[in-house]
Amino acid sequence: MIEQETITTTDTINFEMAIETFIQIETVGRSKKTKTWYKDKLFNFANQMGGSSRTINSVIELDLFAWYERLEESNIAPDTKHGYIRAIKKFFRFLHRRNILTLDLAQGLRLPKLPKRARKGISDQNANQILNAARANARDYALINFLESTNARRGGIADLRISNLFLDQPEPLCRRAIIHEKGNMDRTVIMSPETHRALVHWLQVRPHRCDHVFTTAKGSPLTTAGISEILDRYRERLNIKEPCSPHQWRHRWCRKRIQDGMPLPQVSQLAGHKSITVTADFYGTFAIDELHQAFDKYYKPP
Prior knowledge:
Blueprint: H1 2-8, H2 15-26, H3 32-48, H4 61-73, H5 78-97, H6 124-134, H7 138-150, H8 154-158, E1 176-181, E2 185-190, H9 193-205, H10 224-237, H11 246-259, H12 264-271, H13 276-283, H14 288-298
Antiparallel strand pairs: 1-2
Helix pairs in contact: 2-3, 3-5, 6-7, 7-9, 7-11, 11-12, 12-13
């Protein structure tokens, strides 16, 4: 219905209509945060193009290159610039694919190269502090252990169901779980023996019964924001200064597996990355101290 109306009324489609259609179609199944990310960037772009009421077919390629030059000359962070250009390119590719525009006007916009950064994540000391502090709370201890050992994203943890666990199966099946996360994808994660024990204990003592594994005190499913709030409370209670977000635990998991010698393809697959390139770009860059230690370990004089 939306597609047909969009194609037959291209002369009257303005930025607002095009952006809302793009969000509705292209971000199906994506998180609210992702939808907001695209919407903020696209409406900001529309304002710089003359406002959201401007018709899409009045935009020409020179308009985009003029905007691109202004963006390049601005003082905003490289990551922010990269995000804007990526959003605009996807938006105009969508408009062209849907026959709203005859040309992909943003095809010639180049994505700036971003510096490779090593993602270390939460330190071992802080991770152990939080885990030890959580022992007094069965839910928190099971949740944080699951986060620590499986590297699951917080969306996958929030959506984790009893039916996706195999806790009563023999080894090694009992330590596997199916999680549903980023981009509506299912993947299997593997948990540690301690995580298995913590989950069994939590499910035995939790006061509420529902298919979601992790629930609030009132029995409703724990949200992604609720998971972050739990970690923030421990961070504040323990006076930890460094970030301790769920993604910091993922960074730590990937980094440690590589340091421990796990082959990069296996790290990539267990982390749920789309390609090994993502894993290598984020975690394959080592600090000079780590490289020095590796050199001393593996170098053999002739």
